[in-house]
Specification:
The complex is a heterodimer of chains A (277) and B (391). With 277 residues, chain A is mainly α. In chain A, 81% of the residues lie in helices and 0% in strands. In chain A, helix 2 crosses helix 11 and helix 3 packs parallel to helix 6. The two termini of chain A are 46 Å apart. The model of chain A has no long low-confidence stretch (mean pLDDT 88). Chain B is globular and about 75 Å long. Classes of the chains: A mainly alpha (277), B alpha+beta (391). At the A-B interface, helix 7, helix 8 and helix 11 of A face strand 6, helix 2 and helix 4 of B. Chain A: It is a multi-pass membrane protein. Chain A: Keywords: Cell membrane, Membrane, Transmembrane, Transmembrane helix, Transport. Chain A: It is found in: Cell membrane.
């Protein structure tokens, strides 16, 4: 019993460590006072003000657009890369390719950002594209490092996928391209979705790389928050963060509900099959 | 062991008929993976309508050979002809061949019907015809009412039958089966063996089966090729392989066998006599062998061909020549008895120190059996029982 008490205490400490900061953030978003850390009574005025703040909303909108576009691009490229690594045997330069694909995972973001900035500047001087820095350059930059994560996810999924499924489809008369779209893609779809979500999240909270490659008039949300810290955080940011958290939490809740139901259904089916077999 | 082939003998088997053209011809095919030689200069001819088994342990190259027929591996050297057409450079999706995979490889995101229809869809068969053919083949494998289920809603035996239906629905001339019964339990496996043979005879498809299970190969196939280290050790009917193994490997791989080492002392047109220290007696075999006197050979005697008795065996007229002067008769002490119900296995230690395995049907009840542990017994066998092996 004493042991249990200690364990429960440790558990609550763990929860507190993880969630008290977030709870505080939500709590102070309903603060009347302009000072973030001084409680001045309950109010939703910061939410109302937030809706008037074009700079903050614009930044959030830009962040979402960049995240969606770069996640989509990195899913396409990452799937192709994962496919090359998992299915094309030992082609020339495979080891190098495998290493290079995962390099952005361990590269310091500052270096990634700086090198991309140099690349964009050089490109602009050489061929006139990209014309200045903005949404395009941030999207490209985010794609380069989120693609690595997607490639790793897809590759590991493909390695665990029974290759004889693809062989069976080919044996039944389907050409390789058709096999990919009709057999491989539907089976690895969950991995692609989770890859997309991971890429989306990574892009949404990146501040370092974005600071290097963004230009005037294209400031992402994390950059706005980060720079506003220097002048004291407005409770509007608390309100915005709360809203985003509600959206994310709802999404996760629904997803886990759906997954749990599918899991139960699957177990029931298997039980039925065993009994019926 | 029940080793009766269940096929009825036909007039002239195709492999004995010189006028027959083989349907599949494998010519000196070699496959290497790096330094490892998986298949080593294998040549085979397989005829239309055969149920051909490739039998071997793991790493014997049997699956690699099958995958080369399907087109998933390219031979390093040699040629494969199917129906007279050289298969070099022809991809799997253009070969007149279908394969049933060991893992069944059912598409998990498709229903049973969609799985079976997949191959027909690739060929652009009309929708009405697809529906009809899928229905017919599912009825054949007795899965008519399971069409809407997904693979994970089926039991192992049902999945196996879906895989079979899917590979048969395109009416291939040649069906390759990779360990088709490997994942089934013993009872289901025995029943499915007969089903497979029935389906094969009904549809007249040529089957090539890869298996490591010798009993499975024996019951189902018209001919067996025994493979070892990428080489074919012997090709023949189940009876030939079992009764007339050509090498020690085949004799020991198929069933169990007692191997006596000896030296040829008499080499006549109608018999040979082999002196064996191992057996403790001379071995008499009633047919000539192509080995000179003085050569050292092995003699394989199957456990069920040895008779056990507590008295010295009486020389029946047929065995007179064989058992004269104590030929094919030796004695020892019973060390172990394993009671299997229908038969019992006796391990008898000969005076020479060698242990011999004998199986005998349990004609009388276990409790009334005359031979028990530590009895001194005589072992004898008929002149045709021994097989002389030089390799």
């Amino acid at each position: 019993m004493k042991q249990m008490g200690k364990l429960a205490w440790a558990l609550w400490f763990g929860y507190a460590f993880l969630y008290v900061p977030i709870a505080l953030l939500i709590f102070y978003s309903f603060n009347e006072s302009r000072l973030v850390t001084v409680w001045g009574g309950f109010s939703t005025k910061w939410y109302a003000e937030l809706l008037q703040n074009d700079q903050l909303l614009g930044a959030a909108w830009l962040s979402l657009k960049v995240a969606a576009m770069s996640a989509t691009a990195s899913v396409v490229l990452g799937t192709v890369a994962g496919l090359a690594l998992a299915r094309f045997g030992r082609f020339r330069g495979r080891t190098l390719f495998g290493g290079m694909i995962t390099a952005p995972l361990v590269m310091p973001e500052v270096i990634t950002g700086l090198s991309l900035l140099l690349l964009f500047v050089a490109l602009e001087q050489a061929i006139g594209w990209p014309d200045g820095r903005g949404m395009t350059t941030i999207t490209i930059a985010h794609t380069t490092f989120t693609m690595a994560y997607v490639a790793v996810i897809i590759q590991s999924r493909l390695v665990s996928l029974d290759e004889s499924l693809e062989e069976a489809a080919m044996d039944l008369g389907a050409r390789p391209a058709k096999v990919f779209f009709v057999i491989t893609l539907p089976i690895i779809a969950p991995a692609i979705v989770s890859g997309w979500l991971l890429a989306f999240t990574l892009s949404l909270d990146d501040v370092v790389v974005a600071s290097f490659v963004s230009g005037p008039g294209s400031t992402t949300l994390p950059m706005v928050i980060f720079s506003s810290v220097k002048f004291g955080i407005s409770p509007q940011i608390n309100a915005l963060a709360t809203l985003m958290m509600v959206v994310v939490a709802t999404g996760i809740f629904i997803a886990s509900l759906v997954m749990a139901r599918q899991d139960r259904q699957r177990k029931r089916d298997e039980q039925m099959a065993v009994q019926g077999g | 062991m029940a080793v009766q082939p269940i096929r009825k003998p036909t007039r002239l088997e195709p492999w004995q008929d010189p006028g027959q053209k083989p349907y599949v011809r494998i010519e000196k095919v070699t496959k290497t993976f790096g330094d490892f030689v998986a298949v080593d200069e294998v040549s085979l001819s397989i005829y239309r309508g055969e149920f051909f088994a490739l039998l071997g342990g793991s790493g014997s190259g049997k699956t690699t050979l099958l995958r080369m027929l399907a087109g998933f591996e390219t031979p390093t050297e040699g040629k494969i002809f199917i129906d007279g057409v050289d298969m070099a450079g022809i991809p799997p999706y253009e070969r007149p061949v279908n394969m049933m995979f060991q893992s069944y490889a059912l598409f998990p995101h498709m229903s049973v019907e969609q799985n079976v229809a997949f191959g027909l869809k690739q060929d652009g068969v009309a929708k009405a015809e697809i529906k009809e053919r899928v229905g017919a083949i599912l009825d054949l494998v007795q899965l008519g009412q399971f069409g809407k289920r997904k693979p994970h809603q089926l039991s192992g035996g049902q999945r196996q039958r879906v895989a079979l239906a899917r590979s048969l629905v395109k009416r291939p001339k040649l069906l390759l089966l990779d360990e088709p019964l490997g994942a089934l339990d013993k009872r289901l496996r025995e029943r499915t063996q007969f089903e497979l043979v029935n389906i094969q005879e009904k549809l007249g498809v040529t089957f090539i089966v890869v298996t490591h299970d010798q009993e499975e190969a024996m019951t189902m196939s018209s001919r067996i090729a025994v493979m070892n280290h990428g080489v074919i050790a012997q090709t023949g009917t189940p009876t030939e392989i079992y009764e007339y193994p050509q090498s020690r490997f085949v004799a020991e791989f198929i069933g169990s066998v007692n191997m006596f080492e000896g030296r040829v002392v008499e080499d006549q047109a109608d018999h040979v006599l082999i002196r064996s220290e191992d057996a403790g007696c001379d071995l008499y075999i009633n047919h000539a062998v192509a080995v000179p006197a003085g050569a050292t050979v092995g003699v394989a005697v199957r456990p069920e061909k040895i008779a056990l008795s507590k008295e010295p065996p009486v020389n029946a007229a047929a065995n007179a020549a064989a058992n004269a002067d104590g030929r094919n008769v030796t004695s020892g002490i019973v060390r172990e008895i394993a009671y299997l119900g229908d038969v019992s296995i006796y391990l008898v230690e000969l005076k020479t120190g060698k242990t011999v395995r004998v199986t005998a049907p349990n004609v009388v009840r276990r409790t009334e059996m005359p031979i028990t542990w530590d009895d001194e017994v005589y072992l004898s066998w008929r002149p045709f029982a021994g097989v002389v092996l030089t390799q």
